Each structure stands twice: as C-alpha cells, then as structure tokens.
Amino acid sequence: MVESLLFIILGAVLIITALLGITRTNPISSSLCLVFAFLSLASLYAMLSSAFVAAIQVLVYAGGILVLIIFVIMIMHLNEKDLVHLKPKYMLMLVTAVIVVAGTLAPCLYVLSRSSFFAAQTLPENFGSAELIGSVLFEHYLFPFEMLSLILLTAIVGVMVISKKKL
Amino acid sequence: MAEEFVVLLPLWIIVIGAIGVLIIEAVWGTKGRSVLFAATMAILLLAFIGEIMVYRWTCAGAQDIFLFNRVLKISALTNLFVLSAIVAAILTILFSDHYLIAHAATTGEYYFLVLMVVAGMINVILSHELVTFLVGLELLSLGSYALAGYFRNREKSIEAALKYYLPGIFSTAIMVMGIAFIFGATGTTFFDQLNQGMLQMPHRSIAFVFGFIMLLAGIAFKLTLVPFHAYAPDVYEGASAPISGLLSTGIKIAVFASLVRILGDAFQLPSGKAMFVFLSTATMAVGNSMALKQENIKRMLAYSSIAHAGYMVIALVSHSAIPARDMHFAIGFYLLAYTFMTLGSFGILGWLSGREERFIYLKDLAGISKRCPAISLALAVLMFSLAGFPPTAGFFAKYYVFRLAIVSGDLWLAIFGILNSFISAYYYLRVVVYIMMKNDNDVQLPALRLSLKLAILLSILGTFAIPFISFP
C-alpha cells in the first residue's frame, strides 16, 4: 500500500518535472526541473531494489551531467533577448499526445497487463548489488565495456571536429 | 585467450592504427598530413590481409568461433561481411584523398573517424548478442554523425549532420527500449538463446513481439527502409561525396549482416513475413518513384540507395522457407556489388562536382564525355550496373535476390522488383544521356590523382569481376 502510494507520487513528480523541463524558457530553471526528474527516477530505481543503480543515477546524472549542463549554459551566457519564448499550440500538442498514447502506448500496456508480463517474481539474493553488476560487467560483457572507451574517444574527436571554426 | 587476439586481428589493427593516426596528427600537425592517407591505406590493407588469413583459418575449421564469453561469433558469413566492410572503407579512403586535398581539408581526425566507423562496423557484424550489437552500432553512428558534418563551413553539411544526429538518437532510444522488452520477455540477450527463452516463457511472447518491432524499427532506420527513410536524401546530399558513399554502403553492410544474423540465429517470426513484404515493397516503390524527378544527382543516388535496400529486403522475406546459405549468399553478393557501384558513383561525383560541390546537377554533366572520356565511360558503366544491366554485378545481384523470391513461392514479389528495376533504368540512363550530350559549358575539370584513378579502377573491376568470384 505504502509502496504503491510512493510509486504514484514519484511517478507524478517525474512526469510533471519532465514536462516542466521541456517547457521552461529559462535554461537554468529547466535544468533544475531536470534535477528533480533525475532524483525521482533514482528513487524509483531504489524502490525496484536496485540500490546501486539508484546511487549511480544520482552520482552521474544529478551530480555530473547536470553540473556539465549548467556549466555550458553559463559559458554560453545567454541574454534575456536571446531566449525565444515558445508559443506552443496547446490544442495541437494535446491532440498529438492523445493520438500517440492511444495509438501506441495504450494497446501495448493493455496487452502486456493481460499477459503475465507484470507478474510478481522472487528476486535472487544479491539482486542489484554492486558485486553482481561488477561481475556481469567485467566478465560477461567485457568486450562491449571496453568498446565503450572507443565510443567516448570517437565522441571527443567528433565534437572537436564539429566545433572547430576553421576547417 | 590467445584466440581472441588472433581471430580479431583486423579489429585490433584498425583500432590501434586509428589511434596511431590521431597521434600523427597530434605530434606533427600540418607537417604530418601528407602521410595520413598512406598510413590509413596501409592500416586498411593490413586489416584486409589479416581478415583473409582469418577467413582461411576459420573456414579450415568449418566451425563457428565464439569469443569473449560468447558475445562475438565468427563464421564464414561474418568473414564475408567484414571483408566487404573493409573494401567499402578502402574505396572511401581512396576517394577521400583527392576530395580532401581539393578542399584543403585534410586532417587526422577525418581518417581517425573513418577508421572508427569501420571498427564499429566490424563490431556490429561480429556481435552475437544485443548489448554488443548496440555498442557497435553507437560507435559506428557517432563517427558517421561527425563525418556528415565534417565540412562545417558548408551550410548543407551542418544541416546533414543535424538531420542525421537527431533522428539517429531517437531511433537508438527506440531500439534500446526494444532490447529491454526482448530481455524482459526472454531473460537473455544472446541471439541463439532468444528462441529458447521465448519457449520457456510463452505467456510473454507479446512483449517479445513489441520488442522485436522496436528493434526492427531502429535497424530499418539505419537501412533507410521506407517509413524510416526520410533523413537519407538530405544527409547524403549534404555530406561530402565520399562520406555519402560510406554512409550508404558501409553502414548498410554492417546492419544488414547483423539483421541476417539475428533472423537466422535467433528467431523465425511466424508473422514476420508480412512485415518484411511491406518494408521491401514500400521501400522499392518510394525510392524509385522519388528518384525519378531528382535533378540533383546526389539526391538521385540517395533515393537509389533507398530503393536498393528494398531489393535486398526481398531476400529476407522468405528467410524461414529457404536454406540460410542461399539467403546469406544473395545478400552478401548484393551488398558487395552495391558497394562497388554506389561508392564508385559517389566518388566520381565528388571529383566532378568541384569545390563546394556546386556542380551536382544533371545539366552540369553535359559534355563530360568530350573532355574526359575515360571517367564518363566509368560513370556510365556504374549507372548501367545500378540499373541492373547484364553483364555487370548489378544484374547478377538482382538475379540472385529475385530467384530467392521465386523459389520460395513469392513470384509476385519478384515481378514487383523487376518492374521497379525497369522504372529505375529511366533515371540511371538519364545520367548516361546527359554525359553523352553535346554542350559548350566550360567547367574546368580537376586533375586526376593516382588515388582517384585507383579507386575508379577498383570500382569498375569490382563491378565486372565479382560475378566470377565463388563464395564458399
């Protein structure tokens, strides 16, 4: 009972802050909304008994990525007149959202809820522990994990290529 | 453990070589730029030779090799696709040499990114598991986003990068969601265990189908199949010509290879046939009909690349009814033929179009045959091959694919494909007509570098020779 109540509250906070995050004109306030979205997402992970993933979510996203975003916003130093005020067509957005939800998400959820996809299961003893994640990452998925370093290198070089002014 | 290093030799050569190229750029700067092309070519040739050695070795064993806790699988099929991917990279680099010098834009980063894209392709082709597949696909995509926007002083190039990047990350997000669904439904991400996982939990098959559709949507985006093709013309038009060639050939080789692997190893969807029929017919029809009215040759080639993806999907339609060997052969052959034809045409176009790629309209081709008969003959041959005239590779590629459709009882699909080929002949032959036309426009053609001559020779040779290669 408490769990489902908590889930509803956290889910509502997540959706509302995510919506606020994409509708704010001021980049700082929209990134602050993003912090709350990340935090409620981390709490949802914790509720799914994945404490390690929750901690990583807070450290990496709420801690690292957001500082980076705010840093970039400050470097860009936007004036009030640079910020374009969006004039969203609310009716159009509503209709689109209804079509998307009704057309894709609702049948998906309906069918899934009728199958036993959401049926409760007992978790193994050390589910979500740092030890288990570490062993999966460095034993079974060693190759893709190492390839990730190449992805980061490519991303760094790619960003440098695109952002240099002179050819 | 030693096996990991020997069998993956081409990948290690390319990765280490790419970092070496970056170091050359960092240490010697502008002075080192003259050796970059030679160094990259040497790396790719070494990788090619290494792959042939691996090929002989694995074929002698006639057994699939699994590496790194079964996340990678090497078989005769994957070797063939890796070879095609390296060939595509070699052609791209050969064409790039002239292009970069003509535009005064040679940097180590360019060669590094191309090599990284190739490493991503090899990773995608070899992956035997969805997470590894995703990582490889991201490596390949990130490199190609940056390469599409490499000429950032051109508005079109920036537009191409953005139009590639934004839909690209959306498609990746959808694909990750699909992989999560598949994992939730089967409890595994290994291709050969998905079927078993499904059978153990039949009540979850609906989640599996959702996951598969999302995964297929992400793959179809990379292959420019029709509901997901809209980005392709703008991207291929805006990116520099050699890179457009790499994007339209190399990436398709890699992603088609993994799609074939997923379908072959993992599962035989009972209702999948209708989906592939729709994808192939829609892709062929839209690609060919849109190409008809293009005046810009790069856009025309982009739509032709969409249409060719449609022909290739015909081979997948009947994947459960025919021997896997035949399907692999048909697709592998088609991809190799397509690589030579498309990269060759993009490369020649990059040479003709001059600085800033201003001369890329059909009318700019008028009178080329007078001033440079050899190149115009080559371009005409490539166009005939793309249209599927015998005795070029394009004809044999289409023949093998359509024969599969007939053998498995989908005669109408083959007829639809042949009708589409007739339509496509119109816009390919239009290029030939314009080449032969008399004209007095006095555009100065750039000089022919050795690398460009080699590249054109290689693509023409490929167009004529690969029908004679016997695939094991």
Task: Describe the overall structure.
The complex is a heterodimer of chains A (167) and B (472). Chain A has 167 residues and is mostly helical. Chain A folds into 3 domains: 1-84, NADH-ubiquinone/plastoquinone oxidoreductase chain 6, subunit NuoJ (Four Helix Bundle (Hemerythrin (Met), subunit A), Up-down Bundle), CATH 1.20.120; 85-115, no CATH class; 131-167. Chain A has 6 helices and no strands. Chain A has helices at residues 2-23, 27-47, 51-76, 90-114, 130-140, 142-163. The longest helix of chain A is centred in the middle third of the chain and has 26 residues, at 51-76. Chain B has one domain (2-468). Chain B is 76% helix and 1% strand. Chain B has helices spanning 2-7, 9-28, 33-61, 76-102, 108-126, 130-148, 155-186, 191-200, 205-222, 232-238, 241-266, 272-291, 297-317, 324-352, 368-371, 373-387, 393-407, 411-436, 450-465; strands at residues 65-67, 72-74. Chain B has a two-stranded antiparallel ribbon. In chain B, helix 4 (76-102) runs antiparallel to helix 19 (450-465) and helix 13 packs parallel to helix 17. The model of chain B has no long low-confidence stretch (mean pLDDT 88). The chains are: A mainly alpha (167), B mainly alpha (472).
Overall geometric form of chain A:
globular
Strand content of chain A: under 5%
Q: How many structural domains are formed by the residues of chain A? A: 3
For the largest sheet of chain B, list the strands in their spatial order: 1-2
State the name of the first-level CATH class of the largest domain in chain A.
Mainly Alpha
The largest interface is: A-B, 27 and 44 residues
Q: Based on the structure, what is the oligomeric state of the protein chains?
A: heterodimer
Termini of chain B, distance in Å?
28 Å
